[in-house]
């Protein structure tokens, strides 16, 4: 049986092989002076130091434990290391580190409930489209960043985020409170 997590791992590995054998020569299909500033601003949100700052601040704002914050920083570092090693091995732009960072931030935002989930999905879409539009990455690179971020983000979510929600829901139900599944819990 193929689980979503194993599908992401397979997609990441397949993308690395494609990038290795196809070369990496993207062009910039959507360019122009009016769009370059927008692309630069969106692309800047995917820089590692920006993703790290936004992710940590979001976790602190959501009143997550320091354990959750530290594990997320560790997950971001491990994923960033894998992203760098994969680029060296494939001698290409695969996977997109900016898309990986966007997925990791989206994972944090999703832990805050539906508004965070929607914001995170928009962030990922904007980052992926921007990376292709400026010619920084091929579609396969963006897919690789999505897959890597999905695997690492799911690992963080399972180790911290999901555990916290399950514990909080159980505590609330034990106290006799009504809890809507998937909603942010205070």
List the helices and strands and how they pair.
Blueprint: H1 4-22, H2 33-44, H3 48-61, H4 66-90, H5 97-110, H6 114-133, H7 139-174
The end-to-end span amounts to 36 Å
Largest sheet: none
The stretches of 5 or more residues where confidence is low (pLDDT under 50) are 4-30, 181-186
Q: Total number of helical segments? A: 7
Share in β-strands: under 5%
Counted beta strands: 0
**Overall pLDDT metric:** 74
Give the helix/strand class: mainly alpha
Order of helices and strands: HHHHHHH
**Overall helicity:** over 70%
Shape: globular
Rg result: 18 Å
Plain-language structure description:
This protein has helices spanning 4-22, 33-44, 48-61, 66-90, 97-110, 114-133, 139-174. The longest helix is centred in the last third of the chain and has 36 residues, at 139-174. The radius of gyration is 18 Å and the shape is globular. With 186 residues, the protein is mainly alpha-helical. Mean pLDDT is 74; it is low at 4-30 and 181-186. Helix 1 runs antiparallel to helix 7 and helix 5 packs parallel to helix 7.
Give the structure's gist in a few sentences.
This protein has helices at residues 4-22, 33-44, 48-61, 66-90, 97-110, 114-133, 139-174.
Structure characteristics:
single chain; mainly alpha; 0% strand; disordered C terminus
């Amino acid at each position: 049986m193929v689980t979503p997590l194993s599908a992401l791992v397979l997609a990441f590995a397949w993308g690395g092989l494609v990038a290795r054998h196809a070369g990496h020569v993207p062009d910039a299909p959507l360019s122009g002076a009016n769009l370059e500033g927008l692309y630069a601003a969106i692309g800047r949100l995917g820089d590692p130091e920006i993703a790290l700052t936004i992710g940590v601040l979001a976790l602190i704002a959501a009143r997550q434990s320091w354990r959750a914050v530290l594990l997320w920083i560790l997950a971001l570092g491990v994923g960033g290391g894998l992203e760098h090693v994969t680029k060296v091995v494939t001698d290409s732009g695969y996977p997109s580190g900016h898309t990986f960072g966007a997925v990791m931030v989206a994972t944090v935002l999703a832990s805050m409930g539906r508004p965070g989930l929607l914001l995170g999905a928009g962030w990922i879409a904007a980052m992926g489209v921007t990376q292709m539009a400026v010619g920084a990455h091929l579609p396969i690179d963006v897919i690789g960043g999505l897959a890597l971020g999905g695997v690492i983000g799911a690992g963080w979510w399972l180790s911290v985020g999901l555990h916290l929600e399950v514990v909080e829901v159980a505590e609330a139900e034990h106290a006799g409170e009504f809890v809507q599944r998937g909603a942010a819990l205070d």
